[in-house]
Write a structure and sequence with these properties.
31 strands; Inhibitor of vertebrate lysozyme, Ivy; 23% helix; alpha+beta; Nuclear Transport Factor 2, Chain: A; 9-stranded antiparallel beta sheet
Length: 620
C-alpha cells in the first residue's frame, strides 16, 4: 500500500510539474517561497509590500508595490536576485527614445516598455517593438537604452525586414476594449500590449485610424453620432484647409522640450583644434553630437555604453568632462550621506565632473521617498577628493546653461600644467624615464574610464608637434599607449605589444647582435624602432631608423656608480635630486653619458647629456 501511495504521489507531482510548465507560471502562497528568496527580497526592498508570488521559468517572481511604484522582482531559488522591472507608460520615456523608435520603426508600436534594474548593470529602459496587427505572430525587436535615452543595444529577430505595409486592425476587435479599458485604465500592463489587446483609452483610436489608407471601412464600422453626418459632407474642404502640423489630440502627450536643440551644430563647423582635444578626452566615442553654448563647444557622446560630455573652449583648451557613473562607483562616504538623510531614496543617475582646475566634483541625482510618485528629483554635489557634500540642488529649477564655464574662454596656465605634472605618482615618472629616456612629460591629467574608474593620461614628447600618450591606473601601473605625429596614430596595449618591424631593421639588429634572445620591440612617434634586450654588458637599448640605421646604443648603468665628475656637477647645480636613470650612450660613433634626474623642489624630470670625460654638454 505504501509503495502504491508513493507511486501515486510521484505521478501526481510529475503531472503537476508538466501542467505548470505548460502554463509557464504558477501562483504561490507566501509559505511556498524559499526563505532565502524572501530574505533576499526584503534586503533589496525593505519598505515594499508584496501583492503576490509566482513561479515562472523556475524563477521566483514577486509582484510588489514600493513607494507608489509597481514592480516585479525575479530571484533564483537560492535567493540570488536577477532583475527588477517597472512597467511605465510610453509617455514617460525620454524624447530621444521616442524619436529613435519613430525614425527606425515607422508604423510600429511599443508593446512592452519598462525600466529594469539588474546586478552590476545600470538602470535602463527595455522596449519591445512590434508591428501592430491582430493575431500577429511576428517576434518583437528588443531595444535597450540607458537612463539618459541613448541606445545601448538593438536586437531584431532573425530574418527581420522592416514592414512598410499598412497596419490592419479590424474595428470588430476594438469593440470589447471599452469594457476592458475602464477596468484596466491607469495600469501599465505590458503583457496586454504584447498581445496587442486594445486596452488603450479611446482618445488614442483616431491616431491609429489615420494610418490606415483605406479608412472608409474603418470609419463605417465605428459608432458615429448623428451630428457627424454634416461633418462628413464638409470633409474635402476640411482636408484642404488642414495644416500640415496637426494639434495633438486631447489624450496625447505633448512632445518634451529639448533645451539643447537650439545649440546644436554640425561636426564640420567644429574647429580641428577642438575636435583634436575631444579625441584626447573621449576614448572611442559613439553617437557624437556637437553644441556651441556661449564660448564653449560641447561634445556629447557615448563611451562604453555610458554618456560623456566634453567641454572645450573655442581655442581648443579643455575645460571639463562629465562622465556618467554606474551606481556602484559612487563612494561609500557619499552613499552613507544619502542613506542617512534620504532613507528609501531611488537612484536616478550620477556623473563625475573632471575639471581643468582640478576642482573635481561628483553629482548624484535621486528621488526622495516622499517625491517618487511626483517624480521630483533631488541632486547633490560632492567634492571628489574629500567626499563631502558641497550643495543640494533642485534639478527641475537649476538651469544647466547658467554655468560660468560655458561663457568664459580661459586657457590653462603653464603653472597649472606644471602642477599637474608634479602631482603624478613617482611610479609614472619612473616608467617614463626608464622606457622613454629621450622624452619629457609635456602634459598630464586624469580622465574617467568606464571599467577602471579614474586613470592618468600623460603626454610625452621629444620635441616638435609629435607626442606619445600613455595611460596609467591610479597606482601608476601602465595600461596602454597611443602614438601620434599629427597624421596617424599607432595604438599599443600592454607594456610592449607586438608590432610589425621592417625586415631591414630586423636584419640590421641580428647582424649586430646575433646571439640575443627575446628582444622587445617598440615604435616611437618618429617611426623609429626601439629594442630592449639583455646583452653581454647587461640591459641595453638600441634605436634604429626605418631603413635599418643604428641611431643610438644605450647601456643601462648602475645609478649608484656615477663617475665623480658628473656627481660633482649634479650636487653643485641641483643640490638634492633623485637619479632615475644613468646611461652610457654611443651616438654618431661618440661616447656620452645621459642621466635622467628629478630635482628635489620641482620633481620635474630633466634629461642631461655629458661627454665621456664627464663634462656637461646639454639639457634636453
Amino acid at each position: 500500500m505504501k509503495i502504491f501511495r508513493f507511486i501515486l504521489i510521484a505521478v501526481t507531482l510529475q503531472l503537476a510539474f508538466s501542467f505548470s510548465s505548460t502554463l509557464n507560471a504558477q501562483k504561490l502562497k507566501t509559505d511556498d517561497v524559499p526563505g532565502d528568496v524572501s530574505q533576499s527580497f526584503t534586503s533589496e526592498y525593505p519598505s515594499a509590500k508584496i501583492s503576490s508570488w509566482i513561479l515562472e521559468d523556475n524563477q521566483y517572481v514577486a509582484n510588489f508595490k514600493d513607494d507608489g511604484s509597481i514592480g516585479k522582482a525575479y530571484f533564483k531559488n537560492d535567493g540570488t536576485w536577477l532583475k527588477t522591472t517597472y512597467d511605465i507608460p510610453t509617455s514617460e520615456i525620454p524624447l530621444s527614445i521616442s524619436k529613435y523608435v519613430t525614425e527606425n520603426y515607422p508604423n510600429y508600436e511599443i508593446s512592452v516598455c519598462n525600466l529594469r534594474e539588474m546586478p552590476k548593470v545600470n538602470t535602463h529602459y527595455y522596449l519591445e517593438v512590434r508591428f501592430p496587427e491582430v493575431g500577429g505572430k511576428d517576434a518583437p525587436s528588443i531595444l535597450t537604452f540607458d537612463y539618459v535615452g541613448n541606445l545601448t543595444k538593438r536586437e531584431d529577430p532573425e530574418g527581420f525586414t522592416l514592414r512598410t505595409d499598412t497596419p490592419t486592425q479590424p474595428a470588430a476587435a476594438q469593440k470589447p476594449a471599452k469594457a476592458e479599458s475602464s477596468k484596466n485604465e491607469g495600469k501599465n500592463d505590458a503583457r496586454n500590449e504584447a498581445r496587442n489587446e486594445p486596452v488603450a483609452s479611446e482618445p488614442a483610436q483616431p491616431q491609429r485610424i489615420e494610418v490606415v489608407k483605406n479608412d472608409q471601412p474603418a470609419v463605417a464600422e465605428r459608432p458615429v453620432k448623428a451630428e457627424k453626418g454634416k461633418a462628413e459632407k464638409d470633409e474635402p474642404a476640411a482636408k484642404a484647409d488642414k495644416p500640415k502640423k496637426e494639434k495633438k489630440g486631447k489624450g496625447e502627450a505633448a512632445e518634451p522640450f529639448d533645451p539643447w536643440a537650439k545649440y546644436a551644430i554640425a561636426e564640420n563647423k567644429v574647429p580641428m583644434t577642438v575636435q583634436k582635444m575631444f579625441k584626447k578626452k573621449a576614448t572611442k566615442p559613439e553617437n557624437t553630437q556637437w553644441f556651441l553654448v556661449g564660448e564653449t563647444y560641447v561634445g556629447k557622446c557615448v563611451v562604453r555604453d555610458l554618456p560623456v560630455e566634453v567641454y572645450i573652449s573655442k581655442k581648443g583648451a579643455w575645460k571639463k568632462t562629465y562622465s556618467y557613473m554606474l551606481q556602484e562607483r559612487i563612494t561609500s562616504a557619499m552613499v552613507k550621506h544619502i542613506e542617512t538623510y534620504y532613507k528609501g531614496y531611488k537612484f536616478i543617475k550620477a556623473f563625475k565632473e573632471l575639471r581643468a582646475d582640478k576642482k573635481n566634483k561628483v553629482y548624484v541625482e535621486f528621488y526622495e521617498k516622499k517625491n517618487y510618485k511626483k517624480k521630483l528629483p533631488t541632486g547633490i554635489w560632492f567634492d571628489e577628493k574629500t567626499r563631502k557634500m558641497i550643495r543640494t540642488v533642485d534639478p527641475n529649477f537649476e538651469d544647466p546653461f547658467n554655468d560660468p564655464d560655458l561663457f568664459t574662454n580661459t586657457e590653462p596656465s603653464q603653472e597649472d600644467i606644471q602642477a599637474a605634472i608634479d602631482e603624478l605618482p613617482a611610479a609614472i615618472k619612473s616608467y617614463v624615464a626608464s622606457n622613454y629616456p629621450p622624452y619629457k612629460i609635456r602634459e598630464a591629467d586624469t580622465e574617467e574610464d568606464a571599467d577602471l574608474g579614474e586613470i592618468y593620461r600623460v603626454e610625452i614628447t621629444s620635441g616638435g608637434t609629435s607626442y606619445i600618450t600613455l595611460f596609467f591606473d591610479k597606482s601608476g601601473k601602465f595600461l596602454k599607449k597611443e602614438m601620434s605625429d599629427g597624421k596617424k596614430t599607432v595604438k599599443s596595449y600592454g607594456d610592449y605589444d607586438e608590432i610589425e618591424v621592417p625586415e631591414v631593421v630586423l636584419n640590421a639588429f641580428k647582424a649586430k647582435f646575433p646571439r640575443v634572445d627575446n628582444p622587445v620591440w617598440d615604435e616611437d612617434e618618429n617611426e623609429n624602432f626601439d629594442v630592449q634586450f639583455t646583452g653581454t654588458k647587461g640591459k641595453e637599448m638600441c634605436i634604429f631608423s626605418p631603413d635599418g640605421r643604428l641611431l643610438e646604443d644605450l647601456y643601462f648603468l648602475d645609478p649608484t656608480k656615477v663617475i665623480p665628475e658628473i656627481e660633482s656637477y649634479l650636487k653643485s647645480t641641483y643640490g638634492k635630486y633623485e637619479l632615475v636613470n644613468y646611461f652610457s650612450v654611443k651616438k654618431d660613433n661618440e661616447n656620452h653619458y645621459k642621466l635622467i634626474i628629478i630635482p628635489n623642489k620641482s620633481k620635474y624630470s630633466k634629461y642631461l647629456w655629458f661627454s665621456a670625460k664627464g663634462e656637461f654638454e646639454q639639457e634636453e
